[in-house]
Amino acid sequence: MDQCFQSSCSTYIGNGLAKTYFTLFLASMLKNQCDLGGPYPEDKGNLLNSGNLPKEYDFIVVGAGSAGCVMASRLTENPDWRVLLIEEGGEPEANSDVPAFTYQPQISNLWLYSTEPQPGACEGFPNKVCGWPRGKGLGGSSSVNSMLYVRGSKHDYNKWYSYGNPGWDFKNVLYYFKKSENASIHRLRQSKYHGTKGYLITSDGFDHTFDKVADLFYSAIDELGFRKSHDLNNGSPNGYGPVQTTIGNGVRWNAARAFLTPVKDRQNLYVVQKSHVTKLLIKDTAVYGVEIDRDGVRYDFTATKEVIVSAGTINTPQLLMLSGIGPKQHLNDLNIPVVKNLPVGENLQDHLLFFSYVAINPIKLDIKDDLDIVYDLLKFRNGSLTKIGFLPLTGFLNFTCGDSVSPDIQFHNFYFPKGTKYDIAQILGRYPAENRNLILEKNKDYDIFFLTPTLISPKSRGKILLNSTNPFDHAKIFANYLSHPDDIKTFLKGIHVVQDIVNSEPFKAVNASFVYAKYEKCSSFKDGSDEYWNCLFTQAASTIFHPAGTCRMGPRDDPRTVVDPTLKVVGVDNLRVVDASVMPDLPSGNINAPVLMIAEKAADLIKIDWKFITPPIIDEIYD
Question: Among this protein's residues, is 546 annotated catalytic?
Fold first, then answer.
């Protein structure tokens, strides 16, 4: 990290022992601040102009997001394989390393996408579109996300298996969840569901400053009879419990820090940053390399074994289609020669969230002043700045068949003490000023909850299409939110749970009440009525940043399939896709952990194919 604070005032401090001690203290704090970041692998792209960067590799990995970091780390475990990892962005911004700064804008670390306008969704946002920021830079979205470590339900993966994907059932994927994980939560280190030897540190995200708030919430849950769980990552996440986070040693443990930093000095790892992959190089139906653009100059690289595309749910299908792999008619319309006709870009899914706002009487909390919490962070790597910055209790509820299927709704719960202002303004930045100001005004006198049902098993499907043949043009995102009527019905059930919480005795005791958002289209409905909420879903429901599914995994004879169960692109040699785009269905929860799992498994699949390892024996049986 090169964004450390600088001191130019050492002579101001005075003379003698006091000066010595104070100077040592400042130097220590500055070093601790600098140590927050990385260190990340050197950008070998600086060698391009001199011609000293090799042009041929065994494997080329496109994209250094969560999946790409795992792929590069695991494939370079074979010292005889030379691996090139290409990333559009650079190193993560310094403020992204501080967990409590989750809400702060990190524009240089983002792709700023927007959905296409559609009736019945995102209508209350500017231009009637939802913003879809995605991580750009080492670590990808793991460098800008909320750091929640959530695996989903065992039923998610058993369903993937039932579609004709051998090896993707819960028993098999759990092996790879555990392989990647180093669980630092004491109560979980002996659990058969958690690993302790992986690169990814997982920890308890709870800030005990908010114990009284958690007690209030748990009291309401107890009254309503909801199940409580001490581990929502054991394959059966129905109920409420504390979340686990990807925070290690007091800082964000993004995928680059977890998987690249420990191997950054491997001689067979080549990381090229700030370079845009513009197309795959293909001869007949075999991929042999990639073309990149760096500062307006084109460079070609070849792969003797495979190219692995890990560019994400939006950029992966865009790159494939630009290279002639995609829906035949769409490619013909853009005069792109068709290499392979596949349903690339279809099956787009996302988790949709909805903020409901609840005001309560202020709860007296023991909150340290700013200087103390900065000192705790820099000196001890603990305190409020090392936590995720919102109430880390989450809930999973199923409204269909109890524990026999995946949950329908996940509840994210944000809490802002009286006078918070800044974080609220950041979260609601794209919402209409009238509603943003309504919440901020209420926060002057009251604590505010954002009780947030999230649709985690959506039935609606969208698609990605090219906007043009220019690789620098953003693709078109047709989210198609709420197009299936069951999704609105499920959302409404989630709001009914929120109403039950607000009407519980513990919440009544703190004078809880809804702060009703105002939208012209919904003005004819009574505040709090089902009609009001259904209308608000069309105006204000938005992404929780979990797009997936656009290169669907399945059997080769299934017309919906883009990649087979080994993640090889059907009908195209030497090419795999490894990222969230391969998911047949979204898992029921935040998706960073599942993406890391997919990459861990993909790395083994590749090693097995190229005779570096034999298949692991996975014989443990789980309920």
Answer: yes
Q: Is residue 299 part of a domain?
A: yes
237 and 283 inside one domain: no
Q: At what angle do helices 170-180 and 154-162 cross, to 10 degrees?
A: 130
Q: In this structure, are 212 and 337 located in the same domain?
A: no
Question: Within 13 Å, how many C-alpha atoms sit on residue 528's CB side?
Answer: 11
Residues 114 and 96: their CA atoms lie apart, in Å, by 22
**pLDDT at position 8, please?**
39
Which pLDDT band holds residue 531 (cuts at 50, 70, 90)? Answer: very high
Q: Are 51 and 258 spatial neighbours (Cβ–Cβ below 8 Å)?
A: no
Q: Phi/psi zone of residue 400: left (φ > 0), alpha (ψ -120 to 50 degrees), beta? A: alpha
Inside any domain, residue 65: yes
0.85 surpassed by pTM: yes
Same domain, 340 and 358: no
The sign of the torsion formed by the CA atoms of 250, 253, 257, 259 equals positive
List, for residues 427-454, the tens digit of each pLDDT value: 898 999 999 999 999 999 999 999 999 9
In a domain, 148, yes or no: no
Q: How far apart are CA 243 and CA 393, in angstroms?
A: 6
Q: Regarding predicted confidence, which is higher, 220 or 9?
A: 220
Q: In 3-state terms, what secondary structure has residue 31?
A: helix
- Quote the distance between the C-alpha of residue 480 and its chain's center: 20
- Between CA 291 and CA 280 the distance in angstroms is 6
Residues 13 and 81 in one domain: no
Can you tell me the distance from the alpha carbon of 52 to that of 494, in angstroms, rounded to the nearest whole number?
57
- Which residue, of 495, 514, 540, is where some domain finishes? 540
CA–CA separation, 520 vs 432, rounded Å? 11
Residue 402: what pLDDT? 56
Q: Name the helix (H) or strand (E) containing 414.
A: strand 409-416
Q: Are residues 508 and 567 in the same domain?
A: no
CATH number of domain containing 272? 3.50.50.60
Cβ atoms of 292 and 272 closer than 8 Å: yes
Find the helix or strand (DSSP H, E) in which 178 lies.
helix 170-180
Please report, in angstroms and rounded to a whole number, the separation of the first and last CA atoms in the chain: 44
Taking a C-beta distance cutoff of 8 angstroms, is the pair 590, 78 a contact? no
Which are the contacts of 92, defined by CB distance < 8 A and separation ≥ 6? 37, 106, 109, 137, 138, 139, 143, 144, 252, 254, 256
Q: 379 and 511 share a domain? A: yes
Residue 7 sits in which domain range? 1-35
pLDDT confidence of residue 23: 55
Residue 130's alpha-carbon distances to 59, 127, 535, in angstroms, are: 36, 9, 16
- pLDDT tens for each residue of 128-141: 999 999 999 999 99
Among residues 155, 194, 351, 546, the one annotated as catalytic is: 546
The pLDDT of residue 388 is 84
Is residue 267 located within the same domain as residue 397? no
Q: Which helix (H) or strand (E) holds 72?
A: helix 66-75
Which two tokens mark 604? 């083994």
Q: Do the domain assignments include residue 296?
A: yes
Name, in order, each residue with C-beta under 8 angstroms of 118's C-beta and a sequence gap of 6 or more.
478, 479, 480, 481, 483
> What strands lie across the sheet with 181-183, from one edge to the other?
148-149, 244-245, 200-204, 181-183
Same domain, 369 and 390: yes
